[in-house]
Amino acid sequence: MARATPVPRPRRKDEYQIVCATRTAEVGWKNLVATQRNAAVNAWEFLTAHPLERLPKNHRLKGELGHVVSNGAVHEQWQHEMSNGARLWFYVKDDMVMLVQVHTHHPNETK
């Protein structure tokens, strides 16, 4: 019998792709999945479908945190709130959700 190989989740044509824009986000995402897998899956499903929908748990950050610069371009920075205070900070570029920071707990910057 052949070795079992995981099947990657296919992406719909109208879905956004989630990308780690920083090494910090990559490490944070791994930690989030390890500690809060169901919340990470729910966030993934929401962000791939409609990341710019304004809701109490999904909104633009305010003040200095409201923008992020990447490769000289300024982007609106958003926050997706999850259970236990976990937060995803991201911006959207074309069809990609660019994770900037992944917090497994409520970040001090927004308290």
Provide structural commentary.
By secondary structure, the chain is α+β, with helices and mostly antiparallel strands. Helix 1 crosses helix 2. Helices cover 23% and strands 31% of the residues. The longest helix is centred in the first third of the chain and has 13 residues, at 23-35. It has a single domain (17-110), classed as RelE-like (YaeB-like fold, 2-Layer Sandwich), CATH 3.30.2310. The strands form two sheets. Strands 1-7-6-5-2 form a five-stranded mixed sheet. Strand 6 (87-93) and strand 7 form a beta hairpin. 28% of the residues are buried.
Summed up, what is this model?
This protein is α+β, with helices and mostly antiparallel strands.
Protein topology:
Layout: E1 17-20, H1 23-35, H2 37-49, E2 58-60, E3 67-70, E4 73-76, E5 78-81, E6 87-93, E7 96-103
Parallel strand pairs: 1-7
Antiparallel strand pairs: 2-5, 3-4, 5-6, 6-7
Write down the overall mean pLDDT.
92
Number of helices: 2
Uncertain spans, ≥5 residues at pLDDT below 50? none
* Rg calculated over all Cα atoms: 15 Å
- Give the ordered list of helices and strands: EHHEEEEEE
Report the portion of residues in β strands: 25-35%
The strand line-up of the biggest sheet is: 1-7-6-5-2
